[in-house]
Design brief:
Blueprint lengths: L1 H22 L4 H5 L7 H23 L8
Length: 70
């Protein structure tokens, strides 16, 4: 469930962060690659992993781990 939620939220949240970065004067390529520290594709995968961590914690608390009540 966490991977699905992360993937669904990845594009809108990344778009908002990129727009805020553009307003602050950070280029999109620099934003996606962490200032050139990573290849852009690896940077996007790293952004996905960063988004995954809080969603995994959220999913751990929301998913009902008990059995179904009959």
């Amino acid at each position: 469930m966490a991977a699905i939620v992360t993937t669904m939220l990845y594009v809108p949240v990344a778009g908002l962060l990129a727009a805020l970065g553009l307003l602050a004067g950070v280029s999109l390529a620099s934003f996606a690659s962490f200032g050139g520290a990573f290849h852009p594709v690896a940077g996007l995968a790293l952004w996905w992993a960063i988004f995954y961590l809080p969603v995994a914690v959220y999913s751990g608390f929301i998913v009902p781990w008990g059995g179904r009540d009959a």
